[in-house]
Each structure stands twice: as structure tokens, then as C-alpha cells.
Amino acid sequence: MARAGLTVDKIVQAAAELADEGGIENVSVSALARRFGVRDASLYSHIRNLADLRRRVALRAGDEQAERIAEAVAGRAGRDALVAFANAFRDYAREHPGRYAAMQIPVERDAAEGSRGVEVTVAMMRAYDLPDPDLTDAVRLLRSTFHGFISLEASGAFGHPRDVQKSWEKALEALHQLLLAWPRETPAGSPDGR
Fold first, then answer.
1. Which of 34, 84, 155, 192 is the residue whose CA sits 20 to 30 A from 111?
2. What is the CATH number of the domain that holds 61?
3. Is the pTM of this model over 0.85?
4. Ordered DSSP codes for 101-122
5. Which residue intervals are the DNA-binding region (predicted)?
6. Per residue in 93-145, pLDDT tens?
7. Nearest to residue 78, comparing CAs of 121, 136, 127?
8. Are the beta carbons of 46 and 56 closer than 8 angstroms?
9. Structural domain of 175
């Protein structure tokens, strides 16, 4: 009976919840089967294998985080958009640690899937008017800064008595100032680019 109600969406949602409870590395087909009260084989008619399941969790988490960020930055620009973006990014990671960890697994999207996260990020960065490759470099800096801070915070590595929230706010202000003064790459062949 339980098998009749299984769908890919329900399975991926349960896997995402399981990841948040015990870590993405502990998500298994057997654990999900136990959660649904079915045999492992019942899940394989909906997913290919464990890698496929984890890929789906990663994609869902990326979409969830992107939607949260899009809502946070709507109607904002510049510093306000950057702060809203960063806070939504961090809040999602704190509230859904297993899903956030799944997002760090390199996965490829089908061409039809697109990437809402990329769209939202590029839109937030418009106010800084950075052409590529500067835009790519700046986005990589933001992502690595946010991820590093979030990872260190989650592991309890910030032992100094300084309020962690104050450090976060200072980091965001520093990133905003850096983006405003970004050292632009001079294209080859231009008078200064030789």
C-alpha cells in the first residue's frame, strides 16, 4: 500500500529531510526505504541509484536556496541586495545543513533544468557593473567567502569572544567595498592590455 503513494518528489523530499537530520553522507536507499516502510527495490522504480538520489537532493536544495535568495533580494540593489543575498544564503545553510552539504557535490544539470541560482546571483551583481571575467571572479570570491564562513561557524571554529554576527556584518561590508573598487581586468589588445 505504501508503495502506491511513492513519487520521485516524495522520495527526494524525504531524502532531503534525512540529509538535514543526519548528513548527506548518511542518506541511503535503505534508510529511505525504512522511512517509507517499503523494500529498497520499491524506490528503484523512481530513482536510478544512490548517486542519482543525491544529485536530485543537491538540485532541489540549490533551487530552494535560490528561491529564498530571490525573495530576499527582490526590489533591492547594491549593498542592500548583497546583504539580503548573503543573509538568505547563510540562513538556508544553517536551517538545512544536510541539503547545503549536498549542494557542494558537483552535479550537472540537464540543459532544460537551467540554474535559478546563477540567474539570481547575476541579477544581484548587476549594480556592481562587472563584465566577465571580472563577474565570474567576483562571484567565486563571494561564494567561497560565504561557504568558508558558514563552514567554520557550523564547526564551532570561531572561538574568539567577538560576536560572530558582528564579524559576518563586517565581512559583508568589506565585500561590498571590494566589489565597488574591483580591480577590473583590462582586455587583451586594449591600450593598457597589450
1. 84
2. 1.10.357.10
3. yes
4. HHTTS--PPPGGG--HHHHHHH
5. 28-47
6. 999 999 999 999 988 876 556 688 889 999 999 999 999 999 999 999 999 99
7. 127
8. no
9. 2-180
